[in-house]
DNA sequence: CAGCAATCTGGACTTTGTCTAATTTCCGGA
DNA sequence: TCCGGAAATTAGACAAAGTCCAGATTGCTG
């Protein structure tokens, strides 16, 4: 399969495929995330979407990101208190967080093995396993 | 070794051992965490310390918890946006987080194996690896 | 006791996110 | 095309968690 190329035009299909009614604002927010393929905070999404002229409100950015989450279009990464990142990559993967700079990058899950976890409490099911490697500059 | 029994009296020694000048407030905050051996948020620490009568300010609670962090007396666990938990257990271990109830419990690291992590970026050193198993009630 | 550094404090402030009531947009039927 | 209602968006008030600061208190040491 050829490398996916994200345009505003194919955002509508992506949204429909996740049972999300594609509106102008939703397309812009999805495009911000998927065209960059980066971890963005709500604030950053807000800034990207409103670069040219203010066209999407704070409430809509937050509502839309939560909608994307519920529909499984994006994933949430919590590395910093009070700063949620939204991740367009929903395939299972881990994260490397540089605490000094705040830089967050992906770790491919393919070669990572986690074994020996104890059984879950009765009646519980795993939602996700978050593995975050926190690193800092040596000395 | 016999199971440790935490009292206000031995908090002073614990603090000194971590290069922290033991004051009344610091002893109370350490005692709140270590006598319970639980994960507490700043708010919860605040509530515990001020049960009888108000004696420790919000600023001191936050400053003290950050001081404990820097000195390696406690560890920070970030599972929920905008709610940091402080953990008196600084030995390497992992966490189980029940997303519905907010209940946070320890997973012993002894039998958990994480392998296949890629090499770190040059000049970086691992501060901590956080493994969080997020679970929810089945159906 | 006086001087001085460390610590503590109330309260203003910031950041991130939520909520709500009012408006706008969208769409199907008459 | 026009109308009515549902869905979506909006501004701005509000809330929660945490930071900051200038002034007060504490506890040494000389
Ligand atoms: Mn536009
Ligand atoms: Mn007391
Ligand atoms: Zn990612
Ligand atoms: Zn723990």
Describe the protein.
Two copies of one chain form a homodimer. In chain A, the strands form two sheets. The first copy, chain A, has a three-stranded antiparallel sheet with strand order 1-3-2. Chain A starts with 7 loop residues before the first helix and ends with a strand. The first copy, chain A, is built from four helices and seven strands; from the N terminus they run ααβααββββββ. In chain A, α1 packs across α2 and α2 crosses α3 (42-49). Chain A is globular and about 50 Å long. The model of chain A has no long low-confidence stretch (mean pLDDT 93). In chain A, β4 and β5 form a beta hairpin. Chain A is of the alpha+beta class and 139 residues long. Chain A has two domains: 8-87, Winged helix-like DNA-binding domain superfamily/Winged helix DNA-binding domain (Arc Repressor Mutant, subunit A); 93-135, no CATH class. Helix content of chain A is 32%, strand content 30%. The A-B interface holds A 78-84, 96, 98-99, 107-108, 111-118, 120-121, 123-138 and B 78-84, 96, 98-99, 107-108, 111-118, 120-121, 123-138. β7 (124-137) of chain A pairs antiparallel with β7 (124-137) of chain B, so a sheet runs across the interface. The structure holds manganese (II) ion (2 copies) and zinc ion (ZN) (2 copies). One zinc ion (ZN) is lined by residues 39, 77, 87, 89, 93, 95, 106 of chain A. The structure holds a DNA duplex (30 and 30 nucleotides).
